[in-house]
């Protein structure tokens, strides 16, 4: 098993390298230049050329790539053209905001999704199951941003229960009041995100449970005289939950990556919002840093779920 | 005690709900099983063998099935037991062995755990005693290296070994009755023979009765004391193995026997009954369900509702046609050819 994991980790290295080249070239290929956003009718062409030159933007691509890579290894992702601040600092701040929201949303997603999915599968075709299915269909049919906007409008503006923008109140200082303020800001977007995100889990788990219920090994267990209640506990639920724990590995991508929809609608200054604004302003250094990070995160997510899978499913442990 | 009748199936019917109406997969089956005896139930695919077995085990979903009749087992009617009462019988007094050892075991649980589960529910043994019993069982079913195997997962074992595990589970609490639903179908021939020998050994040791479900008459000839031939949910002929093999009366039994692979090349295929068991929804409701498959039997020989008739003590056959119709092999062959 350790061998398998080690091999999987080693494969990641060339993957990341290829990813970094792709990301870099992709950023280069984007239309416009980093100064398009900051020019005004009075900016001279010569000044723009000068800016391009001192920022190394006229060098051949491989040279720019190499520079970028060297800096990358020193933890230097360059300066944001838009914010005139080091990218690492901006990303760091935003990542913390995103982490608050995403951890809350993810925990909530699983905390509701798992029991609801198990219930729906266990009591297939019951009233509860019908209601749950109705909910999943409706939620899936409505675009996510519509749900977000409606939630924001009703609970944020009309009822005024929650703040409608930002990640933390101004002048709350630090310590306990800051934590409370943060929580106030993440509750509504977090709940909405969870209510949407749990649909996939519920549907998947429900069908896993139903399949397992009709499996031969469950029939074997029942023919041993194991009461139905215990059959569900020891065989059906257990076997249905294992694949879910593996997919949970992927969710780390979202934990740091954030949700573009949620953060945009709630003007929540996290990674998702940063990404959108970086694209709008052609903030190359930020875009490349974020795309690279998303790429690495999804690789780590896959790696993590592979490892979890190998840990929980004996059939995969074979060398 | 040798011929104590301890399982009596009386007029049992099992109907499945399909699109709102019920269709009988087993209709009015009556059978007796004694301990120290192997009763083989034979019949081609879809004739209701497994449905009968799972009816005895009480494994049908009551919302989707309708079950009538009576199954008397050691003084109680299994069909009137509550789920809790049934759980005291299943695994303890009746053990079941399933057809497909690949899927019959939980892929995510260790072999030892799965065998021990029976003991968990039916005995008051300590953990140590259970472990010892599990090892003993694994040993008994002829699995080499028990200490190692109980810590393995199903996918690490071969099909034959897995079937032995399934048998170990079924016999864990020394049941009085074992129901083996095609225990060897998924296995190759040499393993088949070993598994059958194993079942016979266990039966002798435990004085159990066995219901052996199969469509392989070779297996029946080798193991069975009693034989019941099923067609379309009904028993069409039953008797001792000798009576059935030496003196088959029902045309379906005869055709089954004739379709047994034989060395004699000339007879190949000659007596195979055409067609197959119709699906539940297409099954004729009135008249004999078997009539469409034996077009060579003259109209006058058919009964409206063929009932069981005794040919000789212990040997019963549905319908009286055998009296009016001479089953000359040559004749059957002629019409068929
Ligand atoms: N749960 C069910 N719901 C509806 N119909 C069923 C169900 N189980 C079995 N049947 C039908 O009942 C009939 C008898 O099935 P059964 O599995 O008992 O046959 P069998 O003799 O065991 O066949 P095989 O040799 O293929 O195992 C078939 O027509 C089958 O399609
Ligand atoms: S009615 Fe009798 S003779 Fe006719 S097919 Fe049925 S069993 Fe055979
Ligand atoms: Mg069957």
Automatic annotation (TrEMBL), chain A:
**Residue limits of the ABC transmembrane type-1 domain?**
95-305
Q: What is the membrane topology here?
A: Multi-pass membrane protein
Instruction: Cite the SUPFAM superfamilies for this sequence.
Output: MetI-like
Tell me the keywords, alphabetical order. Cell membrane, Membrane, Transmembrane, Transmembrane helix, Transport
Instruction: Tell where it localizes.
Output: Cell membrane
Q: What cellular component GO annotations does this protein have? A: plasma membrane
- Its main localization is membrane
- List residues traversing the bilayer: 9-27, 99-120, 140-163, 183-205, 241-261, 284-312
Q: Name one GO biological process term.
A: transmembrane transport
As for family, the record states: Belongs to the binding-protein-dependent transport system permease family.
Indicate what this protein is called per its UniProt record.
ABC-type dipeptide oligopeptide nickel transport system, permease component
TrEMBL record, chain B:
Question: Does Cell membrane count among this protein's keywords?
Answer: yes
Q: How does it sit in the membrane?
A: Peripheral membrane protein
Q: Which PROSITE patterns match?
A: ABC_TRANSPORTER_1 (PS00211), ABC_TRANSPORTER_2 (PS50893)
SUPFAM superfamilies, alphabetized: P-loop containing nucleoside triphosphate hydrolases (SSF52540)
Query: Highest taxon of the source?
Result: Bacteria
Q: Which UniProt keywords apply?
A: ATP-binding, Cell membrane, Membrane, Nucleotide-binding, Transport
- GO terms for biological process, alphabetical: peptide transport
- PANTHER family in UniProt: DIPEPTIDE TRANSPORT ATP-BINDING PROTEIN DPPD, OLIGOPEPTIDE TRANSPORT ATP-BINDING PROTEIN APPD
**Family the UniProt entry places it in:** Belongs to the ABC transporter superfamily.
Q: What is this protein called?
A: ABC-type dipeptide oligopeptide nickel transport system, ATPase component
Q: Which organism is it from?
A: Furfurilactobacillus siliginis
């Amino acid at each position: 098993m350790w061998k398998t994991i080690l091999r999987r980790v080693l494969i990641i290295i060339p993957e990341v390298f290829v990813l970094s080249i792709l990301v870099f070239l992709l950023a280069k290929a984007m239309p416009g230049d980093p100064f398009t956003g900051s020019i005004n009718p009075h900016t001279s062409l010569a000044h723009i050329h000068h800016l391009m030159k001192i920022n190394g933007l006229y060098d051949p691509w491989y040279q720019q790539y190499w520079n970028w890579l060297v800096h990358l290894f020193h933890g230097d992702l360059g300066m944001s053209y838009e914010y005139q601040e080091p990218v690492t600092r901006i990303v760091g701040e935003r990542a913390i905001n995103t982490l608050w929201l995403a951890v809350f949303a993810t925990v909530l997603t699983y905390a509701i999704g798992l029991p609801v999915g198990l219930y729906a599968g266990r009591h297939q075709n019951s009233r509860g199951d019908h209601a749950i299915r109705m909910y999943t269909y409706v939620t899936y049919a409505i675009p996510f941003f519509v749900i977000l906007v409606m939630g924001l409008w009703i609970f944020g503006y009309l009822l005024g229960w929650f703040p409608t923008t930002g990640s933390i109140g101004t002048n709350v200082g630090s310590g306990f009041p800051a934590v409370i303020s943060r929580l106030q800001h993440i509750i509504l977007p977090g709940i909405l995100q969870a209510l949407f995100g749990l649909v996939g889990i519920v549907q998947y788990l429900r069908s896993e449970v139903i399949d397992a219920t009709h499996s031969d090994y469950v029939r074997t267990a029942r023919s041993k005289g194991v009461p139905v209640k215990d059959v569900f506990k020891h065989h059906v639920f257990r076997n249905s939950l294992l694949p879910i724990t593996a997919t949970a590995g992927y969710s780390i991508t979202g934990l740091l990556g954030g949700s573009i929809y949620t953060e945009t609608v709630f003007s929540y200054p996290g990674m998702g919002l940063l990404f959108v604004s970086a694209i709008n302003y052609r903030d190359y250094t930020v875009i490349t840093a974020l795309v690279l990070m998303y790429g690495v995160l999804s690789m780590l997510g896959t790696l993590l779920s592979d490892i979890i899978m190998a840990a929980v499913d004996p059939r995969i442990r074979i060398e | 005690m040798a011929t104590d009748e301890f399982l009596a199936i009386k007029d049992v019917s099992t109907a499945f709900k399909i699109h709102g109406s019920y269709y009988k997969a087993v209709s009015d089956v009556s059978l007796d099983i004694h301990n120290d005896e192997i009763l083989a139930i034979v019949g081609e695919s879809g004739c209701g063998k497994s449905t009968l077995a799972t009816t005895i085990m009480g494994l049908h979903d009551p919302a989707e099935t309708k079950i009538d009749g009576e199954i008397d087992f050691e003084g109680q009617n299994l069909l009137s037991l509550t789920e809790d009462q049934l759980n005291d019988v299943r695994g303890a007094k009746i053990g079941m062995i399933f057809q497909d050892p690949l899927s019959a075991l939980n892929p995510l649980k260790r072999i030892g755990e799965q065998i021990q589960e029976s003991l968990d529910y039916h005995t008051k043994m300590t953990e140590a005693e259970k472990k010892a019993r599990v090892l003993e069982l694994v040993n008994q079913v002829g699995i080499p290296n028990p200490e190692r195997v109980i810590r393995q997962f199903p996918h690490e074992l071969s099909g034959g070994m897995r079937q032995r595990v399934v048998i170990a589970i079924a016999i864990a609490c020394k049941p009085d009755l074992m129901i083996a639903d095609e225990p060897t179908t998924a296995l190759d021939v040499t393993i088949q023979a070993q598994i059958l020998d194993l079942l016979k050994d266990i039966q002798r040791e435990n004085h159990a009765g066995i219901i052996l479900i199969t469509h392989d008459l070779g297996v029946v000839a080798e193991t069975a004391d009693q034989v019941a031939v099923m067609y379309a949910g009904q028993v069409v002929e039953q008797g001792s193995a000798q009576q059935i093999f030496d003196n088959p009366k029902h045309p379906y039994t005869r055709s089954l026997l004739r379709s047994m692979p034989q060395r004699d090349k000339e007879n190949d295929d000659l007596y195979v009954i055409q067609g197959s068991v119709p699906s539940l929804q297409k099954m004729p409701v009135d008249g004999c369900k078997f009539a469409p498959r034996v077009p060579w039997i003259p109209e006058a020989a058919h009964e409206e509702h063929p009932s069981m008739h005794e040919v000789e003590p212990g040997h019963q056959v549905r319908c009286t046609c055998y009296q009016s119709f001479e089953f000359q092999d040559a004749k059957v062959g002629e019409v068929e050819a």
